[in-house]
Hints:
Distance between the termini: 33 Å
Structural class: alpha/beta
Mean pLDDT: 89
Order of helices and strands: EHEEEEEEEEEEEEHHHHHHH
Amino acid sequence: MTDGSSPDAVKSRNFFQLSDPHVVVAVESPEKMLALMQDDDTDKVANILCEPDEISGTPSMGRTKICKKEFVNVSFTRTVIRNVDFYECVFRQCLFIKSQIENCEFHDCRFIDTNTHKIEFKGVYIDPISFEDCLSPKDHQNIGNHLYQRLMNNSNDENQPVFGRLASFEFNRWMSYQLTYEAKRKWKTNKSEAIGLQLNSLGRKFWGLWGAGVFLDRFILCFITVILILSTINFSLRTMMGLPDVKIFLDAVYFTVITLTTIGYGDITPSEPWGKVIMAGQGFMGFFLFALAASIILRRIGL
């Protein structure tokens, strides 16, 4: 979902200011701001400083809808946006610093190079993927961490399980960025703490590779990969492990699956000490993986 813009583009400007303040027009009235947003004669709202504390639609007269509008270099800083629905809108180089979004809907919208520092959501319908091109992982770790935490909380409160899983996955990813950033800052003053933070970050990256406890398809793919790797190890080391019955690679796959699932038919067993140690480790790994799979399935069905 890119169109030539990149989060790295924000490096050339102050991310907490509008990109070109010299051409910005201040709008003091919430009615005028809504009129600009709803103007059918133009598909763009650009270079605007929204000064009203609140922009609110009128639910009694039908929800206020903003369709196919591009917002460029617009500041909604410290603004409460309430009862407004956005359809196929793009927010580019905008500011939502300490904004509060309440009872709004965002359908097929995108946020590009946009500052969402300390944004809040309440009763909002919004797909976390809308923020895919919003922030730079190298420069805005804390902003992304806060953003996806708020999206995750909103999705859970609004019973939006699909959005909740996406937000949870992204929150884990941005936490890893934040921990890496903190580790680099700590390296000169406290190397042991920096190493701990970096290990935590790597753990979260590995957890994300497995689906971060929310994506079953990622988990299944990684589980199959683990089976193939362990089968290769068991087949290559079959003599050292004392596995004379493992004659072909398919035998190794069968033996590995039986070990990981802790079924243990007993038709193939290691006779050497190292083989028993390795199989015990693989059995423990299998118990952990199936417990993780059960957790993912239970989360998906809402138990």
